[in-house]
Amino acid sequence: MIRFHEKEPFSPIEHTYEVEDILYKGKSRFQDIMVVENLFFGRMLLLDNIVQVTERDEFFYHEMLTHVVMQAHPDPKRVVVIGGGDGGIVREILKHKSVEKIHFVEIDEAVINISRKFFPTVACGVDDPRVEIKIMDGAEFIKTAKNIDAVIVDSTDIIGFARSLFTKEFFTNVRNCLTDRGMFVSHTESLHFHKDVVVEMQERLKEVFPAVDLYTSAIATYPGSWWTFGVGALKPGVRKSVRPFEIETKLYDPEIHEQCFVTPGFYGKLMKRELKW
After folding, report:
1. pLDDT tens for residues 140-154?
2. Are strands 178-190 and 211-218 parallel, antiparallel or unpaired?
3. Euclidean distance between the first and final Cα of the chain, in Å?
4. Within a domain: 277
5. Does residue 180 fall inside a structural domain?
6. Element (H, E) at 197
């Protein structure tokens, strides 16, 4: 039995997975890519030896990153997805009948192609006619984007080439491309292990967006498990699901939507850096 040891750059612990089989191993222009088979999680996508997607639990992440802003927006038609080469976010966005166009911006085409082959239930929407695939840096794409209702960033960790997606300049360009009810969301690491990063991202969003918020979800295969999502919007109201719930999901629903946000009291202590752990 092969064992894979994952040591995430920001994590104080190491995860170990038993590997039944290595289905793919290669290197793109940007990163090492591997697909392995695990008895419990099924197929797993690894980028630079960090777990990105598993067949068993991918819906926890993809549903929560997608549907909170999509259901909080009254009529999302044009959406930008940056990163997320596995296609899970695209799949979830396409569940919304209002959507007319998805700009799917991924810097590493190899991730899309490998996901098509090894994760067909995740990548099933990437070839939909409403999806326009752009192989480029998302930070560059967003500079010229216009009339966008939602921008969803599904990047690797906030290091390396993904760092450009977490700067004040990038957030400003996102704000400028949004319609008047537009919203932005991205993962912002773990509250358990990366609290300072979570706070830093909230502070940076507040420099740009009139309305900023923070919600969380449990993701078993991501370091720290208690994962955070930072929202920037041009108008308040992201805590409410304002559209009829007409999509098919496993986890997300309007009740989850209202419960996933951190409480005002906890948020205040977090942002004042009063919490020590």
Report:
1. 999 999 999 999 999
2. unpaired
3. 37
4. no
5. yes
6. helix 195-206
Full-model pTM: 0.96
C-alpha distances (whole Å) from 48 to each of 8, 114, 184, 226 are 10, 15, 27, 22
Q: Cα(203)–Cα(214) distance, rounded to whole angstroms?
A: 11
49 in the same domain as 62: no
Element (H, E) at 265: helix 264-271
Query: How many structural domains compose the chain?
Result: 2
The length of the chain, given as a count of residues: 277
What amino acid is encoded at 270 in this protein? L
Token pair, residue 87, equals 């296609």
Q: Is 154 a catalytic residue?
A: yes
- The answer to whether residues 219 and 206 touch, using CB atoms and an 8 Å cutoff, is no
Residue 251 CB neighbour total at 10 angstroms? 16
Are 233 and 256 part of one and the same domain?
A: yes
d(CA 56, CA 64): 15
Q: How distant, in Å, are the alpha carbons of 58, 137, 230 from that of 221? A: 9, 26, 19
The catalytic residue among 57, 86, 154, 157 is 154
C-alpha distances out from residue 46 to 8, 31, 35, 39, 161, Å: 11, 10, 6, 16, 16
Q: What is the pLDDT of residue 8?
A: 79
Q: At residue 22, what is the residue type?
A: I
Q: How far apart are CA 275 and CA 277, in angstroms?
A: 7
What parts of the chain have a pLDDT lower than 70? Answer: 157-162
Query: Whole domain around residue 175: which residue ranges?
Result: 58-271
Domain membership flag for residue 103: yes
